[in-house]
Amino acid sequence: MEFFIDLISTIIPYIKAAFLAIIPLGFLIFIHELGHFWAAKRCGIKVNTFSLGFGPKLFGIQHGGTDYRLSLLPFGGYVQMEGENPSEQTGAPGEFASASVGNRAFVVAAGPVVNLLFGILVYWLVFATGLNTDATRLIGGLTGMPLGEKEDVQIGWVADDGAGAAGGIMPGDILVSVNGDPIRHWSMFQTRVFTSANKTLDLVVERAGELQTISVKPDAIPSVRGDIGEIRVSSGDETIVNHVSEGTLAAQAGLQDGDIIESINGERLYNVPYFGYGVWHPTENWINEKYKALYNNINENQEALVLGVRRADETQILEMPVDWRVIASVQEGSIAEDAGIQNGDVLLTLNGEPVNETTLHSQLTAANQPIEIDLMRKGSLKQVTLSGETESSETDPKHIMFGLMWQTSLSGMQLASKKPPLPEYSISTAFGKGVEATWLTFTAVGRTLQQLIGGDVSPKHLAGPVGIASATNRMFSSLGLSSVIFFIGFISINLCIVNLLPIPIADGGQLLFFTVEKIRGKPMPRKAQEIVQQVTIVLLIAFFLYVTWFDGMSLIYDLRN
User: How many helices (H) and strands (E) does the chain have?
Assistant: First the structure.
């Protein structure tokens, strides 16, 4: 019995998450059908059923010849019009097939148009109510829309043994285009690399003010969706001094909050130096090796850390001795928090031995319990005791010991990436940005469809309802409300585009039939329509199962890890 109770308690959060994720998708399908319903009523076409949800009818009412019902599965909905199915057509007035070509086209197009208008409305709302960092990152990733004054897509570090270095990519390169397509956001470049395993990409980069063309072939990395591309480069960013502690070596040398660090000991920076918790884990990560190499470079001369600093339009060189401090960061509700460690505490000793940022993880793993830690908090010395971590968790190199993490302060300064100021829009300018984002969504989806047809992108990388629900759930869990709302708008516009494709069972296919009918002066033979629809249904079901299989495999992999 205890096993089943544990199993149920484990499954319930996932059921809740799935429910929350499916609701937005169901709503988008519902308003799509609402568009068809409104247009049909306006054109005098009899609507037999308008259902909120699918499956068996729970209850409903009859009004104006339409059965308005609530069905068992309240995700989406459907509209059933008189004479909509070719096998049911009698030619009687009020049937869908009896309406003029223009009216039928209007009814069919109304669904995608409602999805499009809703997407624009959502985009407008997001821009008008204000963006946060997560939202700007998401918008840039989905649409490639630059939201800063000038957003160069720059290369940071390059792995010495990766496909990027082999192809000639260098730190500081500004990405201009890939295979002729402009690169407006780092996520666009990542996606192109991700879907191009063992396929040559022609990159145009700006280097030292000149354009150069280089060819890169991403390595193939196995995954549950097949091989994915990897070139092992990082996104470049500027390093800003986030905070200088009063009275420290950095403060004495004249460093100020907001200064931009352009170089360390003569080495140009294209990535923010990081020497904290994650770098010193016993895991293989080429970026961590870059951090460690920079750390060793700094320690080669402890007496003279040389910084190239930019302050406003002025560039200067500052020197100071090297001094490392380990700054604590604790997880909420963790053993470290219960022991009394607070964010910002300076860790001094562990069981009487000086704390070393490079070995602290191994020190925590190997130490006998209880663990005594001396720390400094606002000029006062304090001592805390850690105990209670299980042996099994200690053997996992990815585990956060006791819920204790740390950052490393270099000579009293803390570094971070420079974030562009978040843009603000008025009601009118927000609408313009919403329309622009809609257009960029259309071009992004169109480019993906083109790559699918051309074989540049595998359908294994597409997301069906399961994948969309999973992505929505992740955004509910980790991103702000504006990000979730924007993603829903993005899916709505995608539904518009997909439904307008010239596939017989889709709205676009129906519009194609109407075009042929207008040219011929009569509709396609009923038998031909039925055969085309039946074949299309079989192919779409096969395609749906294909995509859903990989969505499911990815979901299982994520749950296990």
Answer: 15, 22
Name the DSSP class of 153: -
User: For residue 382, what are the β-bridge partners?
Assistant: 375
CB 411 within 8 A of CB 249: yes
Phi, psi at 149, each rounded to 5°: -65, -45
Rounded Cα gap, residues 60 and 64, in angstroms:
13
pLDDT tens for each residue of the chain, 561 residues long = 454 455 445 455 555 556 666 778 888 988 999 999 999 999 999 998 888 888 888 888 888 888 889 888 766 788 888 877 666 767 778 888 888 899 999 999 999 999 999 999 999 999 999 888 878 888 888 887 877 766 789 999 999 989 999 999 999 999 999 999 888 888 889 988 988 999 999 999 999 999 999 999 999 988 877 888 999 999 999 999 999 988 899 999 999 999 999 999 999 999 999 888 888 877 778 999 999 999 999 999 888 999 999 998 899 999 999 999 999 989 888 889 999 999 999 999 998 889 888 888 888 877 777 889 999 998 899 999 988 765 544 445 456 778 888 888 999 999 999 887 888 899 999 999 999 999 999 988 888 888 788 777 777 777 776 677 667 766 666 677 788 889 899 999 999 998 898 887 788 888 988 888 888 888 777 777 777 777 777 877 787 777 777 777 776 766 665
What values do phi and psi take at 260, rounded to 5?
-105, 125
Is residue 461 within 8 Å of 194, Cβ to Cβ? yes
314: left (phi over 0), alpha (psi -120 to 50) or beta: beta
CA distance 537 to 526: 16
Q: Which helix (H) or strand (E) segment is 104 a member of?
A: helix 101-129
Helix-helix angle 427-453:101-129, to 10 degrees:
120
Q: What is the DSSP letter of 367?
A: P
Say if CB 555 and CB 470 are below 8 A apart. yes
Question: What are the backbone dihedrals phi and psi of residue 275, each rounded to the nearest 5 degrees, phi first?
Answer: -130, 25
> Is the distance from CB of 177 to CB of 192 less than 8 angstroms?
no
Cα–Cα distance between 445 and 196 in angstroms, integer?
17
Per-residue burial over 40-65, b if 16 or more Cβ lie within 10 Å, else e, is bbebebbbebbbbbeeeeeebeeeee
| 547: number of Cβ within 10 Å | 19
Helix (H) or strand (E) holding 464: none
- List the beta strands (DSSP E) in 168-313: 174-178, 181-182, 201-207, 210-216, 219-221, 228-230, 233-235, 239-244, 260-264, 267-268, 305-311
Helix (H) or strand (E) holding 162: none
